[in-house]
Amino acid sequence: MKNQENPRRQFLGNVRRAVIKVGASVLAELPVARIRSFAADLALLREGGIEVVIVSSGSIGMGMTRLDLKRRPRQMPLLQAAAAVGQVELMATYEDALRAHRIPTAQVLLTGRDLDSPEHFLRLRHTLMSLFDYGVVPVVNENDSVAVDEIVGSDNDLLAARTPRLVEADLLVMLTAAEGIYAASPRKGGEVIALVTEIDELAARISEGISRGRVQRSLASKVRAAQTAAQDGVPTLVASGIRPGVLANMLDDETIGTLLLPSRLRRSRKQWIAEGLAPRGALHVTADAHRTLVEGHRSLQAAGVASAEGGFGVGDVVRLLDPGGSEFARGLVSHGAADLQQVQGKDPVEMEQILGFRHSDEVVRRDDLVTL
Predict the structure, then answer these.
(1) Same domain, 148 and 211
(2) pLDDT tens digits, 93-118
(3) Residue 51 is part of which domain span?
(4) Dihedral sign, CA of 356, 359, 361, 364?
(5) CB-based burial label for 78 (10 Å; 0-12, 13-18, 19+)
(6) Other CB atoms closer than 10 Å to residue 16's CB: what's the count?
(7) 276 and 212 within one domain
(8) How many domains are there within the chain?
């Protein structure tokens, strides 16, 4: 009954991994001081067992300062150049701020196309999971030198909204210059909405407000991001990145920001692999590999593959078949069909000798596999 009365506590009480988007408006003033403040908060979150991915805007603003540009450029190549210069400054600021708390960090530049590609998606996921294993906080930004979607449209909002699926996050946090989403203009006494349970309805109202010139497009971008995250059952917290201690207190202080709830609980990644993606091929495994996968909950090695079917590529879903030909599992494959046909039945050393590289010893990693 308590959870029904307090849905914020229900959704925020068990967060173990969060994607935190820092908007350009937050870093428009005092960027160094604010990033240092975020770093102190992140140290407290990590002490509580919470892993974090940062998706940070702000590179264009820092690049403009570095290049002594008084106005935001209108030409796309100059905007991209400013972003390239500012990205160095942005990462140096995060590195220094997190290093003060003995937290290592890493730069991850990507585009929406990387998340659309099964191969890039899987390799990004494996990289990020390895960073988590070493206690690293990844700082993600769009690769503005080759992509312009976020520059033109949504300030990294959509990129942030698609990241929870990539890393199996429990929460998306959108830090803005506002305290949250207001029921009416704060100039007219409007208060922050604490909880939104009907995101689509809110999005429709905001769209109507934009058409009448009453709502800023940046707000619509945040709500669209929340809609995207909600498709995976992930809630979104829109809160002020200006307020000190916002990250350290966001899970306990119910006065912070607006929490937008999905209409259903988060679908597990295992469900997504088993039900959400169409298989592109099949792997017949040996009796020993079948037993290891089912009873030992281990990864599938190339030595355990008897044969392969289909023209699958890296990151595609494949069916795993036991020696009798019955499907018993599905998973995301780490090697394409052409490479796998060369190394099936081989150990990791032989794989490297045959392929000339050693990307992954596993054909299907345990965390990319679900038994049926």
Answers:
(1) yes
(2) 999 999 999 999 999 999 888 888 99
(3) 2-267
(4) negative
(5) middle
(6) 12
(7) no
(8) 2
